[in-house]
Amino acid sequence: MIAVFLAEGFEQTEALAPVDALRRAKKEVRTVGIGGREITSSHGVTVRCDLADSEFAPGAELEMIVLPGGLPGTLNLEKSPVVQGAIDFCLEREIPIAAICAAPSILGHRGLLDGCRATANPGFQDQLGKAVCTGEAVCRDGRFTTGRGAGVAVEFGLALVEQLCGREAMEAVKASMAI
Questions:
Q1: Is 156 helix (H, G, I), strand (E, B) or coil?
Q2: Cα(33)–Cα(138) distance, integer angstroms
Q3: How far apart are alpha carbons 76 and 91 in whole angstroms?
């Protein structure tokens, strides 16, 4: 299962494009609302999440977590004990963590990207700790996959499909999206 965390003020494209790509690849994806099931994006789009954070408990089925950006969504994700606990769970078990736009700063503030190649929204690149900031659209280094922003959300989602399912599955999803 892939958990995609949504907090008030999230960027909807950065959240829903990866959800779409991963579900097209037949992955089980659960959106997790921080503070409840109904979460409103930074652009006024309200999404009904699969789970509220109070219902989320990481377990053996967890394959990846995804942190979308957006403001104040990223700040709300960062201050969530559930999100921080999910990051800790992933770190302990070497489970992949993906973050896009402003959200890689959550990892940077914890020093998790130190020595890694990473990318983020240009306004947040200085918050990646001691990461090697590539400026690439999407960057994968070990268990961390980072993306620059909303404009590369589909590419980011496809990179997650490739990471979890392989290149052939990613190419099939890409073709289904007529890219």
A1: helix
A2: 25
A3: 21
